[in-house]
Automatic annotation (TrEMBL):
<protein>
    <submittedName>
        <fullName>Heterogeneous nuclear ribonucleoprotein H2</fullName>
    </submittedName>
</protein>
<dbReference type="InterPro" id="IPR000504">
    <property type="entry name" value="RRM_dom"/>
</dbReference>
<feature type="compositionally biased region" description="Gly residues">
    <location>
        <begin position="228"/>
        <end position="238"/>
    </location>
</feature>
<keyword id="KW-0694">RNA-binding</keyword>
<dbReference type="InterPro" id="IPR050666">
    <property type="entry name" value="ESRP"/>
</dbReference>
<dbReference type="GO" id="GO:0003723">
    <property type="term" value="F:RNA binding"/>
</dbReference>
<dbReference type="InterPro" id="IPR035979">
    <property type="entry name" value="RBD_domain_sf"/>
</dbReference>
<dbReference type="InterPro" id="IPR012677">
    <property type="entry name" value="Nucleotide-bd_a/b_plait_sf"/>
</dbReference>
<dbReference type="Pfam" id="PF00076">
    <property type="entry name" value="RRM_1"/>
</dbReference>
<keyword id="KW-0687">Ribonucleoprotein</keyword>
<feature type="domain" description="RRM">
    <location>
        <begin position="116"/>
        <end position="193"/>
    </location>
</feature>
<keyword id="KW-0677">Repeat</keyword>
<dbReference type="GO" id="GO:1990904">
    <property type="term" value="C:ribonucleoprotein complex"/>
</dbReference>
<feature type="region of interest" description="Disordered">
    <location>
        <begin position="207"/>
        <end position="238"/>
    </location>
</feature>
Length: 238
């Protein structure tokens, strides 16, 4: 539970309709004291313009966390919302990942044959660019050369591309294969510009695009269970 380390009190909502606004979250959490009002609500996206269906909310006290948890599985429209207690590390990791997604592949240096590129696999949850740079300490990582990858949901995949100033530096990086970041063994492979371009194409194309038309999610409820805009627990008798 968050709170214990830095005194922060944070909850996480999951299953939000994609049209959810900050005002909708305020309405849903009526009776809960949110730290700094609207500024304490952080809706997240898997990429710009594509909501994740999740948000983090900073509240004023543990009592407010407990009050918010009572709303677990209540409805927002036709969707039931999961409510969790979480911590600042989880929130900051998600917000950092979102900012990275906003930058996307537009911020990557030109994918040219001049760079040496490796791909990492097996990165621990929440691994930062700084940790990867430290992993390759002593080798010539290019400026802004670490790019953490996401899966089709926008979550960290545990993989990264790392650019080096030349191909020899990338070859030297293979010597770090099976070394650890934290408690995880990291696999290091030689990559190439074509692999980077293919990943970028997936993320910009089919990787994030939903199928046409409406597709139900596990959080949707049938009309007979919906109790209005912010109805109660629907068919669960709550």
């Amino acid at each position: 539970m968050l709170g214990s380390g830095d005194g922060a009190h944070i909850i996480k909502l999951r299953g939000l309709p994609f049209s959810t606004s900050v005002e909708d979250v305020l309405d849903f959490l009526s009776g809960v004291n949110i730290l700094n009002g609207k500024e304490g609500i952080h809706l997240t996206e898997v990429r710009p313009g594509r909501p994740s269906g999740e948000c983090f909310v900073e509240v004023e006290s543990q009592e407010d966390v407990d009050e918010a948890l009572k709303k677990d599985k209540e409805n927002m429209g036709k969707r039931y919302i999961e409510v969790f207690s979480t911590d600042r590390q989880d929130m900051e990791w998600a917000l950092n990942a979102m900012r990275q997604s906003e930058n996307g592949f537009d911020s990557i240096p030109n994918v040219s044959d001049d760079y040496g590129i490796v791909k990492l696999r097996g990165l621990p949850f929440g691994c930062s660019k700084e940790e990867i740079e430290l992993f390759f300490d002593g080798l010539s990582v290019a400026q802004d050369g670490v790019h953490l990858l996401s899966d089709h949901t926008g979550r960290a995949s545990g993989e990264a591309f790392v650019y080096f100033v030349d191909k020899q530096s990338a070859q030297d990086a293979l010597g770090r294969d099976r070394e650890k970041i934290g408690h995880r063994y990291i696999e290091v492979f030689i990559s190439a510009p074509d692999e980077v371009r293919a990943y970028a194409s997936r993320m910009e194309g089919g990787g994030f695009k939903s199928s046409r038309g409406y597709r139900p999610t596990p959080y949707d409820r049938n009309d007979r269970y919906s109790g209005g805009r912010f109805g109660g627990r629907g068919g669960r008798g709550g």
